Automatic annotation (TrEMBL), chain A:
Domain Dehydrogenase E1 component span(s) in chain numbering: 45-333
Keyword flag Oxidoreductase: yes
Species the sequence originates in: Alkalicoccus luteus
Gene3D superfamilies, per the entry: 3.40.50.970
Gene that this polypeptide is encoded by: pdhA
Cofactor dependency: thiamine diphosphate
Functional note: The pyruvate dehydrogenase complex catalyzes the overall conversion of pyruvate to acetyl-CoA and CO(2). It contains multiple copies of three enzymatic components: pyruvate dehydrogenase (E1), dihydrolipoamide acetyltransferase (E2) and lipoamide dehydrogenase (E3).
GO BP, sorted A to Z: branched-chain amino acid catabolic process
Quaternary structure annotation from Swiss-Prot or TrEMBL: Heterodimer of an alpha and a beta chain.
EC number per UniProt: 1.2.4.1
Name of the protein in its database record: Pyruvate dehydrogenase E1 component subunit alpha
Coiled coil: 305-332
Catalytic activity reported: N(6)-[(R)-lipoyl]-L-lysyl-[protein] + pyruvate + H(+) = N(6)-[(R)-S(8)-acetyldihydrolipoyl]-L-lysyl-[protein] + CO2
Automatic annotation (TrEMBL), chain B:
Domain of life: Bacteria
Residues of the Transketolase-like pyrimidine-binding domain: 4-179
Protein name: Alpha-ketoacid dehydrogenase subunit beta
CDD domains assigned: TPP_PYR_E1-PDHc-beta_like (cd07036)
Cofactor: thiamine diphosphate
Pfam families: Transket_pyr, Transketolase_C
Transmembrane segments: none
Keyword terms, alphabetized: Oxidoreductase, Thiamine pyrophosphate
Family matches, as SMART domains: Transket_pyr (SM00861)
InterPro entries xref list: THDP-binding, Transketo_C/PFOR_II, Transketolase-like_Pyr-bd, Transketolase_C
SUPFAM superfamilies, per the entry: Thiamin diphosphate-binding fold (THDP-binding) (SSF52518), TK C-terminal domain-like (SSF52922)
GO molecular-function terms, A-Z: oxidoreductase activity
Biological source species: Alkalicoccus luteus
Length: 363, 325
């Protein structure tokens, strides 16, 4: 394709925002968010915790003790940094990989495991926790986010709705429709695209002729930004600003986080060696979000190996306990399923089927 | 009591619910200032303001997504799909999303959404406007599907649909919008979802139908009466869930059944009704259950519409065939 000068001018405006470079050095001091030492350490704690959780989840999945699982290693800065910028009364509408964000927003770990096993109790979001369940249909959460944001706007709440999808999700009609609705109604919504370069196996270059995903905001008439998704400080700062914009009635924002998933798409048989080279993997591991943030914290004398070891142990213990709790939850029955199909009384067909399964399941 | 067309009764139901519950919102393409392409929301924006009754950008999937999101924040949506043939654009937001919300959250969240939409043949609309797609919706667990056949029922059913805590697809046959008036009380009343209604009592045969085919069946019953045949006409009103009890009660009385629908024959509501009769009342039958439907083709907009659609003569003929088996 030969791009016109006019188009190039638009595309060239979208440059990657970064605060910490790969070596953990601050390259954009002016953009440095205000965070206390405790908050900085908490962000690192959560990234370490999430990485251990990911390793344990992969191994539990291989043992057949976990259900559906989409690995997160590599994306910790994108996930943890953006959630860290939220208020607890903001809404999160996650994609299926975005379990760490909803965990830190209030969904107990054992429920995340139950959800992964398809157990209905995994979806019973605790009172006051403002999350939607992880979305399986790519992009459906994006139009729903416009709806949640509209509800918040109508109620006069100074909150936002934030949603996550991937680079593939940015090709869906719902992606544009959701941003367009949010723009048309000036809604407090933040749309995150974690561009991890592959939609299962299809590289982002094959998804679109657009140079960036961030520039797709222009078509919807909303603000868009491309962010180094391996840099937790940049992710945090960009999300915080987008949140502020939403809360102040200045409109929705699209943020593209450039990141990478080290593992397979999901644990259901995906083999990344079919579509990625080990050179590319190595290239991205050099950008690792934990490595660079650890260096940054060590330079500030805020982090030690001992501290990290404690978090690793804590994560392992928590996961063990959560799995135990999930294992101890009564097996889901078809009668449970019938009971939650409708809010009110079941129609005749379901009542009859309930009787049938009650007998079948009591055997 | 006022005389109302079905479209007026529908507007009246929405007005009633906008007054009744401040969480009720009415929106869709052209529903605001314009009052809807059929004027179903005429005057509502003026009366309740743009906050409650508003236009959406033109995107059916996002209208569904909007309703889903608004449910999570406690709103009760009445969303319009301008024509039900456009539902394919919104299919995921309805069948994949809101119909599953209560299940997906283990009963914590629910989607009190009414999806209003015009459909139905005989008015010579362009393609993808008239198709009877209720069978597709009826196969979706978690969804209710309502199709009124007259102004009185339309108001009572729509109020019930809006008050229902789960998504309800409310299909309005275009031919019925202004073809006749009914006595419709100005005060509120509800008609329970999932309950059929005997529109005409009879002893020889049960004609089980819904939507515009109720009028055709009543016309057929009048002709049949002249031939000494007493036909009962059951209006399902809600096609999912079915009022199985009412169907069986009537069939056990008449021992003959003819199921009538405007939709294509295979895998639809009529097939489901026949299966229920087969399961529960086969020994009461003196003849196989008759079926009057359209052909299993694409809806032939305009050109061959009138012959493609079932009519009162087709129904009367099928009744005679069933009785003379």
């Amino acid at each position: 394709m030969k791009k016109t000068k006019e188009l190039q001018k638009v595309e060239d405006q979208f440059e990657m925002f970064q605060i910490l470079d790969e070596k953990g050095k601050v390259v954009n001091k002016d953009a440095m968010p205000e965070l206390s030492d405790e908050e900085l350490k908490e962000m690192m704690t959560r990234m370490v915790y999430t990485r251990i959780w990911d390793q344990r989840a992969i191994s539990l999945n291989r043992q057949g003790r976990l259900g559906f699982y989409a690995p997160v290693a590599g994306q910790e800065a994108s996930m943890i940094g953006s959630q860290f910028a939220l208020d607890e009364k903001d809404w999160i509408l996650p994609g299926y990989r975005d379990i760490p964000q909803i965990y830190y927003h209030g969904l107990p770990l054992h429920q995340a495991f139950l959800w992964s096993r398809g157990h209905f109790k995994g979806g019973q979001v605790p009172e006051g926790v403002r999350i939607m369940l992880p979305q399986i249909i790519i992009g459906a959460q994006i139009t729903q986010t416009a709806g949640v944001a509209m509800g918040l706007q109508k109620d006069g709440e100074k909150q936002i709705a934030i949603t996550y999808t991937g680079d593939g999700g940015a090709s869906q009609g719902d992606f544009y429709e959701g941003m367009n609705f949010a723009g048309a109604y000036n809604l407090p919504a933040v749309f995150i695209v974690q561009n991890n370069r592959f939609a299962i196996s299809v590289p982002v270059e094959k998804q679109s002729a657009a140079k960036t995903i961030a520039q797709k905001a222009v078509a919807a008439g909303i603000h868009g930004e491309q962010v180094d998704g391996m840099d937790i400080l940049a992710v945090y700062a960009a999300t915080q600003k987008a949140r502020e914009r939403g809360v102040e009635g200045e409109g929705p924002t699209l943020l593209e986080f450039l990141t990478y998933r080290y593992g397979p798409h999901t644990m259901a048989g995906d083999d990344p060696t079919r579509y990625r080279t080990s050179e590319e993997d190595d290239e991205w591991e050099k950008k690792d979000p934990l490595v660079r943030f650890r260096k940054f914290l060590e330079d500030k004398k805020l982090w030690s190996e001992d501290e990290e070891e404690k978090i690793v142990e804590q994560a392992k213990e928590d996961i063990k306990a959560a799995i135990k709790e999930a294992d101890g939850t009564a097996k889901q029955k078809v009668t449970d399923l019938i009971d939650i199909t409708f809010s009110d009384e079941e129609p005749t067909n379901l009542q009859e089927q309930r009787e049938y399964y009650e007998k079948k399941e009591s055997k | 009591m006022a005389q109302m067309t079905m479209i007026q009764a529908i507007t009246d139901a929405m007005r009633n619910e906008l007054k009744n519950d401040e969480k009720v919102l009415v929106y869709g393409e052209d529903v605001g200032n314009n009052g809807g392409v059929f004027r179903a929301t005429d005057g509502l924006q003026k009366e309740f303001g743009e906050e409650r009754v508003f236009d959406t950008p033109l995107a059916e999937s996002a209208i569904g997504g909007l309703a889903h999101g608004l449910s999570l924040t406690g709103y009760r949506s009445v969303m319009e799909l301008q024509f039900f043939g456009f539902v394919f654009e919104a299919f995921d937001s309805i069948a994949g999303q809101m119909a599953r919300l209560h299940y997906r959250s283990g009963g914590v969240y629910n989607a009190p959404v009414t999806i209003r939409s015009p459909f139905g043949g005989g008015v010579k609309t362009p393609e993808m406007h008239a198709d009877s797609l209720e069978g597709l919706m009826a196969q979706t667990p978690g969804l209710k599907v309502v199709i009124p056949s007259n102004p009185y029922d339309a108001k009572g059913l729509l109020i019930s649909a809006i008050r229902d805590n789960d998504p309800v697809v409310f299909l309005e046959h275009m031919k019925l919008y202004r073809s006749f008036r009914d006595e419709v009380p100005e005060e509120e009343y509800t008609i329970p979802l999932g309950k059929a209604d005997v529109k005409r009592e009879g002893t020889d045969v049960s004609i089980i139908t819904y939507g515009a085919m109720v009028q055709a069946s009543l016309k057929a019953a009048e002709q049949l009466e002249k031939d000494g045949i007493s036909a009962e006409v059951i209006d399902l009103r809600t096609v999912s869930p079915l009022d199985i009890e009412a169907i069986i009660e009537s069939v056990e009385k008449t021992n003959h059944a003819v199921v009538v629908q405007e939709a294509q024959k295979q895998a639809g509501i009529a097939a489901n009704v026949v299966a229920e009769i087969n399961d529960r009342a086969i020994l009461s039958l003196e003849a196989p259950v008759g079926r009057v439907t359209a052909a299993d083709t694409i809806f032939p907009f305009a050109a061959a519409e009138d012959t493609w659609l079932p009519n009162d003569k087709d129904i009367a003929a099928k009744v005679k065939e069933t009785l003379n088996f």
